[in-house]
Amino acid sequence: KPSVEFRNISKSYDNQTLVIRDLNLSIERGEFLTLLGPSGSGKTTALMMLAGFEMPTTGEIFVEGQPYSALPAHKRDIGVVFQNYALFPHMSVAENIAFPLQVRGHGPKDLDRRVKAALDMVRLPEISARKPAQLSGGQQQRVALARALVYEPKIVLMDEPLGALDRQLREEMQIEIKSIHARVGVTFVYVTHDQGEALTMSDRVAIFRKGVIEQIADPQTLYDRP
Ligand code: ADP
Ligand code: ADP
């Protein structure tokens, strides 16, 4: 059973133009899949539908075999990381990570355990009392990732998470995210327009163009094409 299936998904924001056209895509459990393509090709829209922030116009997404539209939000088990980390400036790292669970009524013991586990996963144990402004860009990115992992999600979604970082840090974080993926072992769906990033990080790359997947293959196969 695949982790995620898009079945005949189309999406229009204005009831006229389709920004996703009859998308069929199967993502394996534990896979690192990257959606690669130019700006406007529909990558973010695909990701937002999987995050539950946008509804498909037609078709159905299945997560672990369940029709996604029928699942209540708290059963969706999806963690999301955006480019602008959206950390709360007045809260410490630990408070930032705990906040979404607190809102949902998790008790202090469970919170504590999950926050520790999430910080451990991104290898940030020693800074949990700091505020976001006291962190480097790479550390902020890890906190954002920890905040997604604290849900203990089955799927992690990342939309251009390294877009705000300088080149060297971006390369370090590519390796870091890859190793976090290996450690956590859940499905990662990653959006970028950076081909090098896609080829470095992914098990498979889906190349988007004008709302359709033009090609989907592992990096080696993509490289080998004449
Ligand atoms: P990408 O992530 O590949 O840059 P997007 O999914 O963001 O592509 O955008 C695909 C198309 O959908 C673009 O033409 C964009 O302008 C349009 N679009 C994206 N989000 C919205 C929205 N909330 N409302 C209307 N149009 C949108
Ligand atoms: P609930 O639906 O239990 O009231 P929330 O209002 O906290 O939960 O959030 C609505 C939905 O958005 C939930 O399914 C939650 O998992 C999801 N959500 C919000 N922020 C994030 C995030 N950073 N990562 C993953 N999912 C998130």
From TrEMBL:
From-to range in the entire protein, with total length: 2 to 227 of 372
Catalytic activity, as annotated: ATP + H2O + polyamine-[polyamine-binding protein]Side 1 = ADP + phosphate + polyamineSide 2 + [polyamine-binding protein]Side 1
Main location class: membrane
EC number: 7.6.2.11
GO molecular-function term, one example from the UniProt record: ATP hydrolysis activity
Organism: Oryzicola mucosus
Alphabetically ordered keywords of this record: ATP-binding, Cell membrane, Membrane, Nucleotide-binding, Translocase, Transport
Topology in the lipid bilayer: Peripheral membrane protein
Annotated localization: Cell inner membrane
Record bears the keyword Transcription: no
Gene designation per UniProt: potA
GO CC terms of this entry: ATP-binding cassette (ABC) transporter complex
Entry similarity comment: Belongs to the ABC transporter superfamily. Spermidine/putrescine importer (TC 3.A.1.11.1) family.
Protein name: Spermidine/putrescine import ATP-binding protein PotA
